[in-house]
Design brief:
By secondary structure, the protein is mainly alpha-helical. Helices cover about 70% and strands about 0% of the residues.
Amino acid sequence: MALIPIYWWNKEVRNFKISQDSFRKQPWANGVILLGCVALAMLLANLPFTKEIYHNFLHTELTIHVASPDGFIDWFFPKDMTMEKFINDILMVVFFFTVGLEIKREVVCGELSSFKKAILPVIAAVGGVVMPAVIFTLINHGTEASSGWGIPTATDIAFAVGILSILGDKVPVSLKVFLTALAIADDLIAILVVALFYGGNINLPLLAIAIVVIMFVALMKKLGEKRLGYYFVPAIIVWVLFYYSGIHATMSGVVMAMLIPMEARYNKAKFHRRAKILWDGLLEAEEVHTYEEFPNGPERHHLRRLSSLTKKTIPPSYRLEHKLNPIVNFAIMPIFALANAGVEITDPSYFNIFKAIDPVLGSVGLGIFLGLVLGKPLGITLASWAAIKLKVGAMPSRATWPMLFAVACLGGIGFTMSIFVDTLSFAGPEIAPEVTQHLRDAGKIAILLGSLTAGVLGSLLITIVDSIQKKF
């Protein structure tokens, strides 16, 4: 009888693990967790008994200080590192590295692997970047907020694809593929925007050293090196060089992702040949040691070699992407949301995004909101229309213009990349620190409101268009 509670407990633990695994596999799971982290961050930043702890924690110094009694060594690394910078400059490197692996996979063998597949979503992504940037610039030209034009240009693939999965068969599969490919192309453009426009003053000697290291890694890859361990140390060196050279450190993740081999150590023929040898050895060991419990010593040896063989037959980039995706989706992105979505509402006007445009500060909230809610769907739809009319691209199968516009509205969900660009914007010696913080906080609120509006609007339009099309 004493075993019954233990059995019941083990059964409950197993059921919990199964439900946890099934939850993680849902395409909307990441979005749900991110929403929860946003709500928690807002509470922590505004409740009177938590806001001081929250902000103090984010500004906790993590710098390593190396010094000597005689004063000859006095070295800090990394420079001015805080918990917030650790999240944005180190943890987000892993996020950008994973995004780089996904983009590389799609370009090599996915939805962007051929001109015919890639051209329409890529053109649509360009339109979805240009139009929000134009709207933001028209509103904020000549003001302190003008440098934030890159904020409303990004699409959050986790939220957009998650909503599409919830809507089920209301959206044609071709349009789901279209939005996914568009979001991937959008990520690539956003990465270029960050690299070109939101870095610091460039230290050319350090950048030159970084390029030499990158060329060395590219040569190593060209010579056929497929062991991931050999790419780890150069990745850290490139990150350090980028961090101190003025290029945003997260770009090192994208660069190194492009250098990870997509070719496996063993091809199909070699795998089959070696697998047959190992399998025959396993069967022979089983026949010789029939009296022993499975697996015995020789069998364990063959099973370990089989495991190693299958691992080496999967390309390194796929293995890394598979391992990193859950870490990024369920750890790094929620941590990023917790650290960056917590805006202390010192000014209620943050929520009044339609207030009069200030001649000095502009209106970062209005520019971001209209950029996401209006600019994104208009840019995506107009660019797609031009590509199709010029016969450069083809309309996705079973898609209509009303449904394409409705799906394009989901492109206005900016969230992760938009918040990341917001944390880089409005900096400079000519802008006072308190003004920078005000603009960034107002920008984050506008991102949340704009993304929420875009998600709700897109979902409603898709439902309405689907119901009308089914009637006729």
